[in-house]
Amino acid sequence: MRNLLDFIAKYNHWFLFILLEVTSFVLLFQYNSYQGSVWLSSANVVAGKVYEWNSSVEQFFSLTHVNKELMLRNFYLERQVNQLRAQMYDITKDTTSVQRNKLQMLSQYHLIPAKVISNSVNRNDNFITLDKGSDDGIKSDMGVVCGNGVVGIVYLVSKHYSIVIPALNPKSNISCSIRGRGYFGYLHWSGGPSQQAFVDDIPRHAHFKLGDWIITSGYSSVFPAGVLVGKILQAYNSHDGLSYRLKVQLSTDFGNLRDVCVVDEPNIKERVLLLNAAKDSLKQKSNY
Fold first, then answer.
1. Distance from chain centroid for Cα 256
2. For 43-102, what is each residue's pLDDT tens digit?
3. Is there a single domain that holds both residue 206 and residue 225?
4. Which residues face 244 on adjacent strands?
5. Separation between Cα atoms, residue 232 and residue 132, nearest integer Å
6. Is 39 in the same domain as 75?
7. In the chain, count of helices (H) and strands (E)?
8. Are 42 and 94 part of one and the same domain?
9. How does DSSP classify residue 140?
10. 20 to 30 Å CA-CA from 194: which of 71, 92, 167, 270?
11. pTM score over 0.70
12. How many structural domains comprise the chain?
């Protein structure tokens, strides 16, 4: 204890100097708007770089697990393609029809690969940060997917980074349908486990069973049809009793999200403008 006191007494002028410097910087950035904005911008850039480095390190040590998931996923998709090819051949007797339809569908979209550098799953308002921004062609309202299914929608974009509202956010509202049955509703998350969410507004006359897959409906201007969302676990009556509410096991593991793709549809801007114009027209008519 005596040695510590002697050390402090010997170098007290350095401690005082550091304290005064910290105090001066706090006063400078807190009470001066220009300096504060410079500090905030610099801090965001530094934070983005730190998140990116941290994500790179975590990704390196999780490559084995990621490769295993990719192998299983590729095997599952290969089985689906083979089954679809066989069914299509039984109907059309044309072995190239499946490949042509697949290429025609994919030609409408441009996928921008990105990496997750910041993510949260246990907050009320979860957000995801990507290492790609406007310089890479990313814009607001673009859909984000991964190898296992839906991730979310791009919310804010800077030159080199973008913020995504994931499905694990109460503000998320993704149009979905029951695969092979045609009935559609909207995916919502209102807290709770990160592996589960709910699909609301499924009509009462809908026929389905537990274990059916939920996919994107294609009715929105964000996601193409057929992207996996999850599997039905349970079905409930809605609060008003006029529809079903489905509990869904999400196919995307948000706690282990690394690589994603941003869906760039060339006609998305035109579709969004048309939808907004329709909403404005309805509002004006309601005011008459």
1. 12
2. 566 666 667 677 666 666 666 666 656 655 664 565 566 566 666 666 665 555 544 554
3. yes
4. 202, 237
5. 33
6. no
7. 6, 12
8. no
9. T
10. 71
11. no
12. 3
Residue matched to tokens 């607001």? 140
DSSP 167: S
Q: State both tokens at 94.
A: 């044309």
| Structure-block tokens of residue 56 | 């790179």
Burial class (CB in 10 A: 0-12, 13-18, 19+), 124: exposed
Whether residues 99 and 47 share a domain: the answer is no
Task: Find, among 230, 234, 222, 176, the residue nearest to 201 by Cα.
Answer: 176
Cα–Cα distance measured from residue 187 to residue 172, given in angstroms and rounded to the nearest whole number: 8
Angstrom distance (rounded) from CA 274 to CA 267: 11
Nearest alpha carbon to residue 250 among 281, 205, 216: 216
The answer as to whether 14 is a domain residue is yes
Element (DSSP H or E) covering residue 35: helix 33-61
Are residues 217 and 180 in contact, defined by beta-carbon separation less than 8 angstroms?
A: no
